User: Which sequence fits this backbone?
């Protein structure tokens, strides 16, 4: 194989011209004959036993060229890419320039990783804004825990109220005739949930266990069953049981049940600290995002569309994996949401483009700053991934090449450098509003 020339084209494309000498090409054609001749039937010969000269006379001299070229291309192309010192980011387009007594000449056009420039990347300015923790936020967090520790209690001696769950039998009639789908037994209906026809749940209120009564409603004009749309109906109902959610008291016992603290005051103070840390972490994350935006603004690169396409597909695969972890998959999600793959790609595309730009900028800075990953850091990262996914380290190493781990660590260390050298100003705390 000989790389005749490598020519840079527009939009980060490179055209390679590759020659293969006659001896090498003839050897590839001979191997192609040995592989393909077994499938060829020639009159007068058993299948797969016809001489090469007979087959070529019948089908033409180039009958085995396509197979030979296809078999040769991967190795020839890989060698040419290495010699040209380029990094392809998409599948190449091949073309045959010539096949003659001198051998084979191929051309390959491929999108490559673009040349990148980044200027003034140290000392970037950013503002850190830490949201204050309000009393209402602490109370809301505690109430969430409180609701998780609630229990259903039977309601005795009083009538149903909004917020109760009523276990009822019901049967609906329109024009005096029972209609399909209008009957239920021992149905648990949360009053106030709005899950039944408007006006239905309100008429349960005020009735007690074992009460039998009528509920009169009018179906919405756009009801899913056309034969009932806009019609008046009567539901004959009976209440079998009433329950209500009981929340625990916010006292020391509650604190002991849900935390390691002995008093509610200690528990609430700890909740305040945790929310403060969450706000601080969010502020730091926002600073990093702001610095990345600034880097992208200072970067110049002719980024080929296939890089964006590939990253968009990565986002799509990651989303599918997250869905599967929650018991769904992409097809089920699209079925219930009305989304399509194209719509999802459109939504992910801006994030993918930003990710590609940020990565290219950081990789270039790593090169300029001569940032490397040590063997100790690489092994530590393998250990971290193994622990996170509960996998043996050897299995992680088999699935993730060291080059990929190294590149990711260099990018991370570069971002650490950008953060370290950035000029980050803390925003002034928001003034509390006071009533006149």
Assistant:
């Amino acid at each position: 194989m000989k790389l005749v020339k490598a020519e840079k084209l527009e939009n980060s494309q490179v055209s390679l011209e590759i020659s293969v000498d006659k001896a090498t090409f003839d050897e590839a054609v001979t191997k192609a004959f040995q592989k393909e001749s077994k499938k060829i039937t020639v009159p007068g010969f058993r299948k797969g036993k016809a001489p090469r000269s007979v087959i070529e006379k019948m089908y033409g001299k180039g009958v085995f060229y396509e197979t030979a070229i296809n078999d040769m291309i991967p190795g020839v192309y890989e060698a040419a890419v290495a010699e040209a010192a380029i990094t392809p980011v998409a599948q190449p387009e091949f073309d045959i320039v010539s096949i003659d007594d001198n051998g084979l000449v191929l051309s390959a056009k491929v999108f490559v990783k673009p040349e990148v420039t980044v200027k003034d990347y140290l000392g970037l300015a950013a503002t850190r804004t830490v949201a204050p923790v309000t009393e209402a936020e602490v109370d809301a967090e505690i109430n969430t825990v409180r609701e998780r520790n609630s229990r259903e209690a039977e309601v005795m001696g009083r009538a149903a109220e909004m917020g109760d769950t009523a276990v009822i039998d019901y049967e609906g009639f329109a024009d005096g005739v029972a209609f399909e789908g209008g009957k239920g037994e021992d149905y648990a209906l949360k009053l106030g949930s709005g899950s039944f026809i408007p006006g239905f749940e309100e008429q349960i209120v005020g009735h007690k266990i074992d009460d039998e009564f009528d509920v009169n409603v009018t179906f919405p004009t756009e009801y899913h069953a056309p034969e009932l749309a806009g019609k008046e109906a009567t539901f004959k109902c009976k209440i079998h049981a009433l329950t209500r959610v009981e929340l625990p008291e916010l006292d020391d016992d509650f604190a002991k049940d849900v935390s390691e603290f002995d008093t509610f005051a200690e528990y609430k103070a700890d909740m305040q600290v945790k929310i403060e840390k969450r706000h601080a972490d969010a502020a730091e994350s926002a600073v990093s995002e702001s610095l990345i935006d600034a880097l992208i603004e200072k970067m110049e690169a002719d980024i080929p569309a296939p890089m964006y396409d590939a990253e968009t597909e990565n986002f799509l695969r990651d989303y599918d994996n997250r869905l599967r972890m929650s018991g769904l998959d992409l097809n089920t999600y699209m079925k219930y949401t009305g989304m399509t793959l194209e719509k999802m790609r459109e939504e992910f595309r801006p994030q993918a483009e930003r990710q590609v730009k940020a990565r290219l900028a950081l990789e270039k800075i790593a090169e300029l700053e001569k940032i490397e990953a040590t063997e100790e850091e690489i092994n530590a990262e393998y250990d971290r991934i193994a622990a996170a996914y509960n996998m043996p380290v050897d299995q992680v190493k088999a699935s993730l090449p060291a080059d990929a781990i190294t590149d990711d660590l260099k990018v991370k260390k570069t971002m650490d450098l950008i953060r370290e050298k950035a000029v980050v100003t803390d925003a002034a705390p928001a003034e509390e509003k006071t009533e006149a």
